[in-house]
Write a structure and sequence with these properties.
With about 280 residues, the protein is an alpha/beta fold. The protein is built from 10 helices and 12 strands. The protein has 2 domains: about 130 residues, Response regulator (Rossmann fold); about 130 residues, Response regulator (Rossmann fold, 3-Layer(aba) Sandwich), CATH 3.40.50.2300. A 6-stranded parallel beta sheet has the order 2-1-3-4-5-11, sandwiched between helices. Strands 7-6-8-9-10-12 form a 6-stranded mixed beta sheet, sandwiched between helices. The longest helix has 17 residues.
């Protein structure tokens, strides 16, 4: 560690604060980062804001006051305004996603193909997906992979956009199941929306998995405690955080940052998927 180290790295989350209380992903992710940084007496300075404009303002404050050695940038978007600002500020950064800055990349195509293959193998042809915000880089990558896989199988999926919240999961699942051609399988972009979707199906009297199969993304405790337990695309989120911290330490030490990939999501079948 440099002699002038601040002893901290920064993480700004531009998302509604209410989601952090119910979405396990970021808490596990931050725990992985903190655990690895603690071995070097570094801590995480966490700041929650409403949008990218406020996030960039936080970076400017941190840079002007010398509060952090480096920052973690999450949820990259198309034409992301943050990397150019960080370069101008000379504020070292690790991006969680594809970037020209040091980054930790994720394979989205492989896991989507695995989830789709599981559903197709069970005979499902009416498949829907409740996505995260369409502006997000990883949402777009998953969408491309799903559309390509469905096209190859002669299936036309239905895509509806959510915001990772319980409300979105319930509302969008209800709309799908009460539509003119309800799906027999739904793939969700996170665990909270999937658990809410399971409850919405029960409220409508749609039996899971007899009449409807559900697949969540991120294997949190929510998925394992649901009844029935949710089939999920399982990601070692804690290890993901540790991997990001490894790149951060290289950045702080001023050595070349190794190209890293996050743990790959794998399909874990449980009680919410069955034959169509």
């Amino acid at each position: 560690m440099r002699a002038d180290s601040t002893g901290a790295v920064g993480l700004v989350l531009a998302r509604p604060a209410r989601l952090l209380g119910v979405e396990p992903f970021f808490m596990e992710f931050i725990a992985g980062i903190e655990e690895h940084l603690a071995s070097r007496d570094l801590s995480v300075l966490l700041h929650v804001v409403s949008d990218h404009e406020a996030e960039i303002a936080a970076y400017r404050r941190w840079a002007s006051r010398g509060l952090v050695d480096a920052v973690v940038v999450v949820n990259p978007v198309a034409d992301d305004p943050r990397p150019p600002v960080l370069r101008d500020l000379a504020l070292p950064a690790v991006v969680v996603g594809d970037s020209t800055l040091p980054c930790v990349r994720t394979d989205h195509a492989g896991p989507v193909a695995s989830a789709l293959g599981h559903l197709l193998g069970l005979g499902h042809r009416r498949i829907a997906r409740v996505t995260g915000p369409s502006s997000l880089q990883h949402t777009r990558a998953r969408t491309v992979a799903l559309l390509e896989g469905c096209a190859a199988a002669g299936v036309e999926p239905v895509l509806v956009e959510g915001d990772y919240s319980e409300e979105a999961g319930a509302k969008l699942t209800t709309a799908l199941l009460t539509g003119p051609r309800p799906p027999t399988a739904i793939l969700y972009d996170n665990d909270v929306m999937a658990v809410a979707g399971l409850a919405a199906a029960a409220a409508l009297g749609v039996a899971v998995p007899d009449r409807l199969s559900l697949v969540a993304w991120d294997d949190s405790t929510l998925c394992r405690l649901a009844s029935p337990a949710l089939t999920t695309m399982s990601v070692d989120v804690h290890r993901f955080g540790v991997t990001v911290a490894e790149s951060l330490l290289e950045l702080v030490d001023g050595v070349p940052v190794v190209q890293r990939w996050s743990p790959t999501a794998r399909c874990v079948p449980r009680g919410t998927t069955a034959s169509a």
